[in-house]
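User: Fold this, then the next.

Assistant: Folding the first:
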Amino acid sequence: MRRLEAAVFFVLAVVGGSVGSAWYFRQAPVQTDRPAVAAIVAEELAKLPKPAPGVDTTQVKSIVTDMLAAEDARNKQNSVMTVASLDPKLLDPMIDSYLANNPKILQRMNDALDKQNQADADVKNKRLIAANADAIFNDPDKIVIGNPKGDVTLVEMFDYNCSFCRGALPDLATLISEDKNLRVVLKEFPILSAGSVDAARVAVQVAKTNADYWTFHQALFTSRGEVTGDTALDEAKTLGLNPDTLKAGMQAQSVSADLQKSFDLANALSVSGTPTYIIGDKIIPGAVPIDDLRTAIANMRACGSAISCPAKAG
């Protein structure tokens, strides 16, 4: 029983006897705030016959007043102790000591934070991909390799001077070779140098011809040194294209517009590096192990989502 309830019970026992107090508690729950206690005491004392044999009402009021004052003092002390316990000067050393003696907590916190951040990023990326789906997967000027009618589409945004893109090229070739139902969309995203931009301007034009773009693409990534516009023109020439015509068209408005679409898309998706892969509802930044891409492709086939559907075992 709380202290204020005890005070009420005491008063009722004094003025009405133990039977009367028990009856009161059964009939009406006691309101245990300070004004309610004082009101109950006043009400019960007012009911006493005058004079009340054996009952000193002044003494009863004094006892209850003392009990309420003591309760106020305890509440005030508890409040002060609570504030003191939150004082950074007291708390900070305690926290530091606890974490120093339990360092694995920091790792668990970091892991939990990473997990939450990834979950938040997945939700955000899913929304951004849905809002830009046509630009990502169905751009009429897209470059498609693999199976144009494949049931799963993997998009790669790349730069010809990106060393990570160069390193990831064999994995992309392997995926295309082993998965005859994979559609790959390549998006020029030249962000590393002026040479990258010039090479992309040539590549956009090559993609609009009947030349083998995949062969051209692989040749640029396996060339030595920086990839420039001249590198791209030389490779285009080996495919039977006229380098002078391509060079003259490098600054064409249509070429600039194609590249601008990639930059606009990257801005919409908050993509800032290469390679960046997009598949289903997932954005995969950086060169990742080929098995990660296989898993995303398997998830897409299993349930149409690269994030929420686990790949089938085996």
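Now the next one, as you asked:
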Amino acid sequence: MRAMLLTAAEAPLEDREVPDPRPAPGQLLLRVRACGVCRTDLHVADGELPRPKLPLVLGHEIVGEVLQGERFRPGARVGVPWLGWTCGECAYCRSGRENLCDRARFTGYQIDGGYAELAVADERFCFALPEAYADADAAPLLCAGLIGYRALRMAGDARRLGIYGFGAAAHLVAQVARAEGREVYAFTRRGDAGAQALALDLGAAWTGASEERPPVELDAALLFAPVGALVPLALQAMAKGGVVVCAGIHMSDIPAFPYSLLWGERTVRSVANLTRRDGEEFLSLAGRVRLQTRVTPLPLGEANQALARLREGRVTGALALLPQLADSSERPTSSRT
């Protein structure tokens, strides 16, 4: 099969022919129909997440067609997320916090992912997908959507919600927040007119640069941009009792800030990974709420260009690799309403 391989940190992915994967008992063999390009892939490729399996096939937003398996029939369409395996035995797993399992293994990190024509995955950690979403549109639901959903739940019942970094996760969670009757305030890189226009189109009450103060005090903020300096900025915008949720798996160092920003029972917390329950709840919600997914499909061979666009902040919405796309002439922006 064809795969885009990471052979060393900070090295370009290599376009190679490799042996087809063989499923072990309890695994599905999948034909990859789409794989989202996530910022976590970039953190792995750039060496910001330590000790990946090498060589490695990146990608953990996999939409696949079942070729072989037991739990799902052949021909079924399933989604493969970041969380690929847990021990099921530790205190975290037994208490419903499998996302914190010390022995957990992750797709596109310790387990080969979806930047390839074929993939295998533990069938216990795969999800049925809402039928109404096309393959490319479904891909970002599997990480951007899931992490956004978990982060939103960590924000409690906050009515005025700030979102810092309006990319793949933000453009989905903003729609969920609006469906729940919350006000959304979107923060982007200064001058990012595309992201700000998308936020307004999806119902944001206000958009501005990350350094700006919104017109109201926020009840909560979700940080998707991996920039530690945003934490004190978000705290400055926060009402007393508010929560700042750091939703990325990697973030640059948080600078020192005065205690007065935290005082007033404000909270800073992180979101780590996801659970299967998160996946079931969010994908059920995505089947009921008509989420617009703004996805640019790209051929598998353009994985390096996709990562470069993400690294440089040149993505509005999300990107997905489609192995069946043979050339760059088939690259419309998919937009579902």
